[in-house]
Write a structure and sequence with these properties.
Layout lengths: L1 E10 L4 H11 L3 E10 L4 E10 L3 H14 L3 E6 L4 E7 L4 H11 L5 E8 L5 H7 L3 E3 L7 H14 L4 E4 L8 H6 L4 E5 L11 H7 L4 E8 L9 E8 L6 H24 L3 E4 L2 E4 L2
Parallel strand pairs: 5-6, 5-8, 6-7, 8-9
Antiparallel strand pairs: 1-3, 1-4, 2-3, 9-10, 10-11, 12-13
Length: 280
């Protein structure tokens, strides 16, 4: 018996859950886990179901075709053991990268890393330690178009499914952001849209914040405005220096990004216009 994950999104209507579960029962699939959500604001319905099935995936898709057609569903159907092929981009700060690599090495993150890309060389030794291909693609205003073309070629040649910007301090062009829509995750060092740009923890310190946090979101053309996947906060106070805030913030960033990547790789995230539905 093989386990599969089915996700669906469609216009909300009566009978969707019964139709899906009924179709699975009819072909002798055994449901292990199922979650659903109907959004009254957007009129959309979302569902994630994990089940076992003894025949081929092609046979399974044929069995589900009538209900998929009836409700005009957007769906994904993948083996549960299939790992998401992931390319990680980083710059000088490597804490988020290190956390992802550690989780991957311990087989607690369901991804297959296709490579590490950086516009600097700080992560090269880390990539070597973990036995992962390192690609140095330096960026200047003059070389940015060429660098993005090389990055896109690398994504395509490695059959990468997901790009993770693990504190990659380069803004992707509108063209590349469009091509990676729903397939690129970024970590931002605050609750959006606060404290954008350089030295975010110094900005937070100067404002005397009592909470700091991080936000993981999908990349879009609008800088740091993509659909949010995961957020976290931690309380701080007047005694914390900018360096204290930075150290705490790095811990939060690492955890939040890892969670977002894990949710995406486990097919728990479904886009809902400019938001996400996350089945945890």
């Amino acid at each position: 018996m093989k386990s599969y994950i089915l996700t669906i999104a469609c216009k909300d209507a009566t009978g969707i859950v019964a139709a899906v579960t009924g179709s699975l029962a009819h072909c002798n699939a055994f449901i292990q886990e199922s979650s659903q959500f109907g959004d009254s604001a957007t009129g959309q319905f979302f569902m994630r179901t994990v089940f076992t099935y003894e025949k081929t995936q092609k046979t399974l898709e044929e069995a589900l075709r009538p209900v998929i057609t009836q409700f005009k569903m957007h769906y994904t159907l993948v083996p549960k053991t299939q790992k998401t092929r992931t390319l990680i981009c980083a710059s000088k700060h490597t804490h988020c990268l290190n956390h992802l690599l550690y989780r991957h090495a311990n087989d607690t993150l369901p991804i297959e890393i296709t490579g590490i890309v950086s516009n600097h060389t700080e992560a090269k030794s880390m990539a070597k330690w973990y036995g992962i291909d390192f690609h140095h693609l330096p960026v200047t205003p003059e070389t940015k178009p060429k660098q993005e073309a090389s990055l896109l070629q690398l994504i395509e040649s490695s059959k990468t499914d997901l790009v993770v910007l693990a504190r990659y301090m380069q803004i992707l062009s509108s063209e590349l952001s469009q091509k990676l829509q729903g397939k690129a995750i970024n970590i931002h060092h605050s609750f959006l849209p606060g404290f954008k740009g350089a030295n975010p923890y110094k900005q937070a310190y100067d404002r005397g914040v009592k909470l700091i946090g991080a936000t993981a979101h999908y990349v879009t053309e609008d800088l740091d405005e993509g659909p949010i996947i995961e957020q976290e906060i931690m309380r701080v106070d007047h005694s914390d220096s900018p360096q204290d805030l930075q150290a705490t913030g790095r811990d939060i960033e690492s955890v939040v990004l890892r969670k977002a990547v894990q949710y995406h790789a486990e097919h728990r995230v479904i886009l809902n216009e400019n938001k996400t539905v996350v089945f945890k």
